[in-house]
Amino acid sequence: MIVITTPIAGQRPGTSGLRKSVQVFRQPGYLENFVQSLFDVLEHHKGATLVVGGDGRYFNDQAIQTVLRLAAANGFGRVLVGQGGILSTPAASAVIRSRKAYGGIILSASHNPGGPEGDFGIKYNAGNGGPAPEALTEAVYRRTQSIERYLGVESPDVDLGTLGNTLVGGMAVEVIDPVATHADLMETLFDFGAIRRLLGSGSFRMRFDAMHAVTGPYAHEVFVKRLGAPAASVVNGTPLPDFGGGHPDPNPTYAAELVAAMFAADAPDFGAASDGDGDRNMIVGRRFIVTPSDSLAVLAANAQLVPGYAAGLKGVARSMPTSAAVDAVAAALGIPCFETPTGWKFFGNLLDAGRITLCGEESAGTGSDHVREKDGLWAVLFWLNVLAVRGESVEAIVRDHWRRFGRHVYSRHDYEGVDAAAATALMARLREALPGLPGQKFSPGTVTLADDFAYTDQVDGSVTTGQGLRIGFDNGSRIVFRLSGTGTEGATLRVYLERFEADVQRHGTDAQQALAGLIATAEQLAGIAATTGRTQPTVIT
Ligand code: G1P
Ligand code: ZN
């Protein structure tokens, strides 16, 4: 079947694929326009295997049926689709790799709210299991603007609820267990015996909050079924199309329920949460929140305690706005540390080339070379493995880390939904001011570096520019200004604040207090209040 159509404007994928409101996605031909453009740009996919799944949000099931009909008409030989339309982002990556698939389509808007009034999204992952490289997403975008037809087959909806094989047109469709491949992979990396003993010891309790998003089934399988944790250890464990009305982003603002439980008198020993599509993680000890930048550093410093990483790390990488905590660990271990632009795709080449083993972002993404995505469940298991071996509390482990490596006090201030033109103007003005900043004194110190971050890929030599404005001070403090590439409404300004404390006894744990000088300097430099009309960030992490 060939449907003649006119191109749909504005389908430029952002940091993590094409993300828009459900209302936009439900326009006739909208999804088809993007998926057909992708298939038009891919090469040699005839007869190949495609992996398809999503985070279970509203419109997921319908979108999958559309993708199946287009895939069949475009000559794919087989589609592996998660039962119930479910596949977390890291699980999709694991399935692509283990089944040696051509690539995969993940239907998700990650941590953005879901439901008829919420967001929807689609992203393509390549055969290495990782996000499509920039050149491909650009080519897809160009194609979305010139496409004049899409292909489909007439075929009834596939029953996604039942495991097994069926046909759509001439294409085989295999409904697979969405959890097994990933859970099996976890067993090869972590000491499940040691974690089982910890969870069964009677003196250790955990709380994993799936936020009514995709990780519920994964957490039940791994923590409850395979590791013997009480069923009540997993909360909000049933995926709902609207995530129960919540905002499935594991940070202190949106995972307030977890934070409250972890600060209560009868708090468990270990708390964790994951996001809409299961790639982010939040780690909380009893009355102690671990920042994602510190978490990455702690995992790197303790990797030798975990079977999958006992042989040592080849190198580590972090996104530019992530704190330098992991750099300090890399220096101590004598291994390379790479600084990449925001977004997981930039880690892909380094992982594929065997240059790094662990990587992470300040936005609660942590992962390793086991897949080509960040992986929420993996990070939680890594922490559990370290806790099981060290027999100390989360807080004790982090404080010991600060004593050894110093503390990179860190916070991110988000100004969400600001006027896009105002945000662009703010960045433009600041960019112009950068050359004049080095040598200037501010309360956090003297500016030693002021640039617009550009990255040259160490493996393929490609250059990515305009990745965020960095202002570094002589004492290791830093402010970064960046506009989000994943928002769907207006613009989101992110301000990343970091200050190095070699002597950790000097300050308490209150990051906002320790960063007050930097926060004031950020305002002084950027005039956030005057430009955006906002005197306070929407979200502080
Ligand atoms: C955000 C995070 C970034 C992450 C991305 C996808 O992107 O900041 O680290 O890779 O979501 O999860 P942003 O909205 O900042 O472009
Ligand atoms: Zn996500």
Description:
- The chain has 541 residues and is of the alpha/beta class.
- The protein contains 18 helices and 27 strands.
- The strands form 6 sheets. A 7-stranded mixed sheet has the order 2-6-5-3-4-9-8, with helices on both faces.
- A hairpin with a 4-residue loop joins strand 24 (469-473) and strand 25 (478-483).
- Helix 10 runs parallel beside helix 11.
- The longest helix is centred in the C-terminal third of the chain and has 15 residues, at 376-390.
- The chain is globular and about 70 Å long.
- Bound molecules: 1-O-phosphono-alpha-D-glucopyranose and zinc ion.
The tally of strands reads 27
Number of helices: 18
Distance between the termini: 49 Å
| Bound molecule types | 1-O-phosphono-alpha-D-glucopyranose, zinc ion
Unreliably modeled segments: none
Percentage of helical residues? 25-40%
The Rg value, from CA coordinates, equals: 23 Å
Biggest pleated-sheet summary: 7 strands, mixed
Strand proportion = 15-25%
Q: How would the global form be characterised?
A: globular
Q: What's the overall average pLDDT, rounded?
A: 96
What distinguishing features does this structure have?
single chain, 541 residues, alpha/beta, seven-stranded antiparallel beta sheet, 18 helices, 25% strand, binds 1-O-phosphono-alpha-D-glucopyranose, binds zinc ion
Short description:
This protein has about 550 residues and is an alpha/beta fold. It is built from 18 helices and 27 strands.
SSE diagram, text form:
Layout: E1 2-4, E2 18-21, H1 22-25, H2 30-41, E3 49-54, H3 60-73, E4 78-86, H4 89-98, E5 103-107, E6 119-125, H5 134-144, E7 149-151, E8 164-168, E9 171-176, H6 180-189, H7 192-200, E10 206-209, H8 215-226, E11 234-235, H9 256-263, E12 270-274, E13 281-285, E14 288-290, H10 292-302, E15 316-319, H11 325-333, E16 337-340, H12 345-352, E17 358-361, E18 365-368, H13 376-390, H14 394-405, E19 407-418, H15 420-433, E20 441-442, E21 445-452, E22 455-456, E23 463-464, E24 469-473, E25 478-483, E26 491-501, H16 511-514, H17 516-526, H18 528-532, E27 539-540
Parallel strand pairs: 3-4, 3-5, 4-9, 10-11, 10-12, 15-16, 15-17
Antiparallel strand pairs: 1-7, 2-6, 5-6, 8-9, 12-13, 13-14, 17-18, 19-26, 19-27, 20-21, 21-24, 22-23, 24-25, 25-26
Residues 15-16, 110, 319, 342-344, 361, 363, 365, 484-486, 494 line the site of 1-O-phosphono-alpha-D-glucopyranose.
